[in-house]
Fold this sequence. Notes:
mainly beta; Thrombin, subunit H; 2 domains; 7-stranded antiparallel sheet; Phage_phiJL001_Gp84_C
Amino acid sequence: MGVQAALEAHLKSGLTTVARCWGIERTDGCKFGFTDHDLDLSFEGHVFKAQTGLTSTALEQSTGLSVDNTEAMGALSDASVSDADIEAGRFDQAQVFCWLVNWSDVSERTLMFRGTIGELRRAGGAFHAELRGLTEALNRPLGRVFQKPCTAVLGDSCCGFDLTSTGYSDLRPVDDVSENRIFRWRNLSGFAPGWFERGRLTVQSGDAKGLKQTIKQDRIEGEIRIIELWEPIRASITSDDQVLLEAGCDKRHTTCRFKFNNILNFQGFPDIPGEDWMMSYPRQAGENSGGSLR
C-alpha cells in the first residue's frame, strides 16, 4: 500500500491520529520544524518540535494560475524563529513545506503545501508569515527583452562569467564600518576606482554571516578606499569580520568586452536603433545610424 493510500485508509478508519508538520528551509541551508502534536516528530531531514507555537490559517487552493496561499503564525523565540533573524532578512524567500502526518506512524503522510515565505511581519512577540504557493512563479513575466544594456546578471548561467577568477573578487577583514553600510580600508589596492561599483558585498563571518548587499559606490579618498552599499547590512558587523567583495558590471557592451572579456555572452543589443529612429528621413549625405538627429 502506498504512503498516501495508507494515510487515506487511516483517515477513513474513523479513529485518527494525525497532526500537521511545518518545515522551513532558509536560503542559507538552515532547517526548522514545527508541529501541533505534543511530541517531537522526525522525517524528511527535519525535526519537528512540539509545542513551538506555530499555527496556520486555512489553505486556499485553486485551479489555473491563481496563487495558492495561506498564513502561518508563531511565537518569536531565540531557539527557533528570532526577531533578529527576521530583521536581518534570513527568512526572506525561505522554502516552506506542510505535511498532514499520522503521528503514530510518520511514514503515513501527505504533502499539503509547498511554497515560499512572502511578506513577513512581527509584533507583540509573534510573527505572521504569508506563504505563497509554487504557482506564484508563473505570474512573473518571462521572455527576451530587446534593449541596449545586457539583461543577464553577472555570473549567472546566461552571463557565464566566473567571478572567482583572479582579480574579480577580494576576501578581506573589515577595517572600519559605519551604519553597517559604509566600509573603509587603507590597504585595498590593486583595483581600479569604481571596480566594485554595482557589485556585491557578502559577509563571510560573524553575526551577519551569509548576508549580502549591492554596492552603490566604490571610491578613493586620499589613502582610504570607501565601499558604500545601497542598504545597510541588517545585522551586527564588527572589525575583523570577513567580507567578500565582487566586481560590478554596468551592463554596457564596452564593459563586457574590456573589463570581463566576455563579449560572446553579452545579452544586450548595443546596435539597436534609438527611439528617434522613427523620425529619420532619407538624405544624400551622412549616415542614418540610429543616433541623435542633428
